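Q: Here's a chain of 308 amino acids. Please give me its 3D structure as C-alpha cells.
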Amino acid sequence: MHFGANMSSTQGSEPSHEDHMERPDTRRRWEALGWGVPIPTTRTALPERHYLDLSPLGMHEEQRARLNRAFTCFTCELFIHFEGYVIAYLERYPGKIRGLSRPMVQRFIHEEQIHSEMFRKLLHHLDPVRYPEEQALLRYLRWEATDDLALRVAPVGAFFLLAWLFEEITLFVPQVIDEARESCDPLVVGVMRLHAREELPHVALDGLVLAHLVREIPRWQAAMHTALALPLLAYVDRKVRGAWKRLVDEESSRLGLTERQRKGLLHRGPSWSDRLGMASFTEKLQESELPGAKLVGWVLRQELRRHG
C-alpha cells in the first residue's frame, strides 16, 4: 500500500524508520549545533517569502527585519504546538495505535519532546526579551481545553493522516531556505535542516499506522477515519489563524504599521512550505489506496487553488 512510507524524492535519500529508531542519543545531534553564537538582530532568520513578500507593503528595513524575527518565532511556536499534539496522543491513547512496537512509540515520543525543547531554545535565542527562558510560555499558540477535546475525539486514522500532512510540510522548510540560504542565520538553518531530517522517518511511522488500520477495519470505517481528518484540520486551521491574528495585531502596534499594512499581513495565505508540503501530500494521496484519501486530497487542492 502507498501511504506515508514513500518519501518525496526531492528530499534526498534517508534511512528507513527501523534504522532511525535504533540511532542513539538524538540530543547529541541537536547540542552539536551552533548554540553559542548569538543571532544578530539585523540578520534574516528565514527567507522573507516563506510567509509573504513584504516589499509591496512599503515597510522600511527595520520593520521588515523585526517582522522576519517575529515570523520565525511563530514558526517555532507552530512546531512546538503540533509536536505537542503528537506527544499527547501517543502518551494518552497508546491503545488506539496499532502497527508500531512499544520501543518505536517511545522513540517517537522522545524525539518529538527533544524537538519541542530545541525549538523553545531557539525561541530564546531569537528573542530573549519575549522568551526570557527556554521554557517560557508561548505567546501566540496556547494549549487549551479544546485541544484536549480534539485529541480525545480524533479517530486514530484521522489523527495520523493529519500528522503526516504537518510532517510533510516540515520536510520542505529546508527547500525554502535553500532559495536564500546565504542571507539566513546559520543556527536557524541548522535547526530547520535537522528537524526535517528527523521528521522524515516519522512520516514513515504515520504510514505504518494507517496501513495497519486499513488491514484491521472495514474499508467504510477506514474511509470515515480519513474523512474525519477534515474537521480536525479545520479546527487546527482556525486555531492557527487566531494565533496569527494575535501576532499581527501585536506587531502592528509595536511597529506602528498602517491599516493597509496590517491587513496585508493578516491575509497572507499559506506559507511557502505549506504550499509545497500540501502539494506533495495531495500527490501522494492521489496514488494512495487509503479509503477516502482522494476526497481529502481534493479538498486540499481546492484550498491551494483558492490562494493561487
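Q: Can you summarize the key feature?
A: Residues 58-306 form a domain with the Ribonucleotide Reductase, subunit A fold (CATH 1.10.620).
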